């Protein structure tokens, strides 16, 4: 199995690149942001709780997202591997993920981090807000709050995986195709293309 964490700040291109990677390598995409938005769209109690945090650009509590990921891992016992997008976002989430994978006799193979300068991130997010309908992309204050959360709570996740020699930086400010190419160079060493 190959288990990839696509890491990087909001707006770094994790969702866009994940879609390309699942096509090429046949991995299962687990995006906590997408899972939470679907809970909100279905007006579930979990969604109603999560939306309070998301609308302010704050992280949803760890136990909520860890529970969602745990059930998705259980629901896909025959997966070739997973791409985690937007998860783990705290060191506690990373430790929980490592334990969940160990129970399944597997582990994170690599963390690929999309490196994009901050002014470019803000530009991309506000631009996406014009069409995505995402409430957390439309106000500059909320976008900035998300970047602050990233620096305070998510950036330390890099150190967690760097300790195990699993953290790699990838230049994320080229075109979609250029970034995909760089990601594939890393992935080709780890996983065969799907047939
Ligand atoms: N792993 C997580 N832990 C806590 N909150 C999360 C997590 N994943 C998503 N969220 C919530 O959902 C919001 C949107 O996440 P996401 O769609 O991943 O944003 P982006 O793709 O722009 O980085 C976050 O700002 C946060 O409120
Ligand atoms: Mg995303």
UniProtKB/TrEMBL annotation:
Pathway: Purine metabolism; AMP biosynthesis via salvage pathway; AMP from ADP: step 1/1. It is an enzyme of class 2 (transferase). Monomer. GO terms for biological process: AMP salvage. Belongs to the adenylate kinase family. Its EC number is 2.7.4.3. This is Adenylate kinase. Residues 31-60 are annotated as: NMP. InterPro entries: Adenyl_kin_sub, Adenylat/UMP-CMP_kin, Adenylat_kinase_CS, P-loop_NTPase. The keyword Transferase applies. Its main location: cytoplasm. ATP binds at residues 11-16, 128, 174. It comes from Chitinophaga oryzae. GO terms for cellular component: cytoplasm. Catalyzes the reversible transfer of the terminal phosphate group between ATP and AMP. Plays an important role in cellular energy homeostasis and in adenine nucleotide metabolism. Keywords: ATP-binding, Cytoplasm, Kinase, Nucleotide biosynthesis, Nucleotide-binding, Transferase. AMP binds at residues 32, 37, 58-60, 86-89, 93, 134, 146. It holds the Pfam family ADK. The keyword Nucleotide-binding applies. Consists of three domains, a large central CORE domain and two small peripheral domains, NMPbind and LID, which undergo movements during catalysis. The LID domain closes over the site of phosphoryl transfer upon ATP binding. Assembling and dissambling the active center during each catalytic cycle provides an effective means to prevent ATP hydrolysis.
